[in-house]
Amino acid sequence: MTSCSSLSSFNLHRSTVTNRHVIISSTVKTADGNNNGTSSSSSNIRDEARRNRSTSKNPFSAKYVPFNAPPDSTESYSLDEIIYRSKSGGLLDVEHDIEALRNHDGAYWRQLFDSRIGKTKWPYGSGVWSKKEWVLPQIDDDDIVSAFEGNSNLFWAERFGKEFLGMNDLWVKHCGISHTGSFKDLGMTVLVSQVNRLRKMNLPVVGVGCASTGDTSAALSAYCAAAGIPSIVILPADKISMAQLVQPIANGSFVLSIDTDFDGCMKLIKEITLELPIYLANSLNSLRLEGQKTAAIEILQQFNWEVPDWVIVPGGNLGNIYAFYKGFKMCYELGLVDRMPRLVCAQAANANPLYLHYKAGWKDFKPVKADATFASAIQIGDPVSIDRAVYALKNCDGIVEEATEEELMDAMAQADSTGMFVCPHTGVALTALFKLRNRGVIAPTDRTVVVSTAHGLKFSQAKIDYHSKAIPDMACRFSNPPVEVKADFGAVMDVLKGYLGSKAL
Ligand SMILES: Cc1ncc(COP(=O)(O)O)c(C=O)c1O
Ligand SMILES: N[C@@H](CCOP(=O)(O)O)C(=O)O
């Protein structure tokens, strides 16, 4: 099973990381050819954004409201407040001034978002900030901390779809091919940017902290390091991959390895952030979801604003399934598209509280004790966003599926055998797809998007175990172990002839 070894093998030194700017070596010229920078010999894209800052009043705004509040609720908070829960202890949501956004029609928004793709203009070169008006409309461009995340590949899974599922319109949204190797970058740019703003306002935020199964911590540490903000990450000892563990270490986070599971770490960070000036970076904090929802908008954009029939998302702490719902819903409400896709949330059978809740007709949610799974980033038994996930799935005729260890590893290996290199969580989502196709719920011609959430390279140990057939009680049907051959021409030729014979056209 994929796991990290003891932290003691690392000699940890915290370092000071200074804020860095991207320097463009050439001088900025005006249309008439004159230099127009305030600095004489060099300029950067932040300076340029500053110079071009609009002087007209910003018509857009957003605030925190209780999640799924009754229509007569007046409770709301500024995004500049440090608050994670409503008065009643429920979740919060970021609510945009929809009427202000509605002053423009769908065609306007489609054109605006499309016009920003593929450029380096600060901050719109990011797939998240290219939708800034829908994300954090009031933040100054100067406060944004971005690695130009998003704009991830939407891969047409031609061979995988055809050979394994008889499908011709299957796509994989590679959210894991990203700055720190997972979709968490999308939310973290938003959260860390807001923290940057709060610190400039002298609000009491000394550091930012999270509990993590590996990906949130990687994203938090990278974005904090880029901005020179201290980060603290709380990890369940021996339950995340080595590649994930080394990310916050390399980025200078203060790393705590704790002898508990993710749910235990989450409980701790919730308590800690109430006591210390550490800002909470987990998706309990609804700011994160504002960034993550842009992946849904991006999918529509990549399909030239046509809506897919199905979108399948692996679920753990369950913020992301709601983020996808919210992204699609905003596009629908604001007239960019004319319908919603159906969402599927896929869980590992070893960590399946949402699946059990769905199967019980959404009655009496009960957290579970999550068992070890190769999809280690979703080994979560008590998801903080359960209410958000249930709301999302109920409102889009959604489905929940589960995948056993063997199913998810086989699905991952099958996808890899067609040229992908996906993580085990994507294997969970692909298993859901197999099951729904086999039951005829998803039709062969349905346009379907599977969301791939992390880079496969973070989980190479799981793949090594699979391809070495080293997993107890697993047939590893699609394993492809290397063939050991003597350093002898004849022996190599024999092996190659046998191989080519088996592949003859
Ligand atoms: C790789 C990966 N996939 C899927 C998920 C599930 O996302 P969520 O917690 O938002 O449900 C996570 C984190 O939980 C993750 O790190
Ligand atoms: N998979 C996550 C678990 C925490 O999720 P979050 O979205 O609430 O931060 C991780 O990588 O830590």
Structure keywords:
binds pyridoxal-5'-phosphate; Rossmann fold; binds the ligand N[C@@H](CCOP(=O)(O)O)C(=O)O; 505 residues; six-stranded mixed beta sheet; disordered N terminus; 18 helices; 14 strands
Describe the structure in brief.
GO terms for molecular function: pyridoxal phosphate binding; threonine synthase activity. With 505 residues, the chain is of the alpha/beta class.
Report on the architecture of this protein.
The chain is an alpha/beta fold. It has a domain at 154-180 and 289-467: Rossmann fold (3-Layer(aba) Sandwich), CATH 3.40.50.1100. 36% of the residues lie in helices and 12% in strands. The chain has helices at 45-51, 98-102, 106-115, 132-135, 158-165, 184-200, 215-227, 242-250, 262-275, 287-292, 294-302, 319-333, 353-359, 386-394, 405-416, 424-438, 460-467, 489-502; strands spanning 23-24, 43-44, 62-66, 92-96, 154-156, 170-174, 207-211, 231-236, 254-258, 278-280, 310-314, 342-348, 399-403, 448-452. The strands form four sheets. It has a six-stranded mixed sheet, sandwiched between helices. Helix 7 links the parallel strand 7 (207-211) and strand 8. The longest helix is centred in the middle third of the chain and has 17 residues, at 184-200. It is globular and about 75 Å long. The two termini are 38 Å apart. It binds pyridoxal-5'-phosphate (PLP) and the ligand N[C@@H](CCOP(=O)(O)O)C(=O)O.
